[in-house]
Design a protein that fits this description.
Elements lengths: L16 H6 L11 E4 L2 E5 L3 H10 L5 E4 L19 E6 L5 E7 L1
Parallel strand pairs: 2-3
Antiparallel strand pairs: 1-2, 3-4, 4-5
């Protein structure tokens, strides 16, 4: 995120699950990292371009999630360049979601 021009403040916590639960993110859409930006919440290895798009479009939503840790997502790059397709999900109120972006 820093390479993309964001200025993250890192806070290490033993258990981040209360953070996503407080915001209404279902456990199955959770992951290992959370962040807040512009009134939104992000969960997992969300690409910076998706965050920029979220802030620009400003949808009525909780935020974005990339569940799990897909190979090739930001922070999950491999020396071989291996990648797997994954989706960034737009987190909607009430525990619902829809595809926000697809990555190959």
């Amino acid at each position: 995120m820093a390479k993309a021009g964001f200025r993250p403040k890192v806070v290490n916590m033993e258990d981040i699950s209360p953070l996503w639960r407080l915001r209404g993110v279902p456990d199955e859409l959770s992951s290992c990292h959370v962040a807040t930006i512009g009134g939104y919440f992000t969960v997992g290895h969300v690409p910076p371009a998706d965050v920029e798009r979220l802030l620009k479009e400003a949808p009525d939503a909780i935020g974005l999630s990339v569940p799990g840790m897909p190979l090739g997502s930001p922070g999950m790059e491999t020396p071989s360049g291996a990648r797997e397709p994954y989706e960034t999900l737009l987190l909607l109120r009430g525990g619902k979601s829809r595809v926000f972006a697809r990555h190959a």
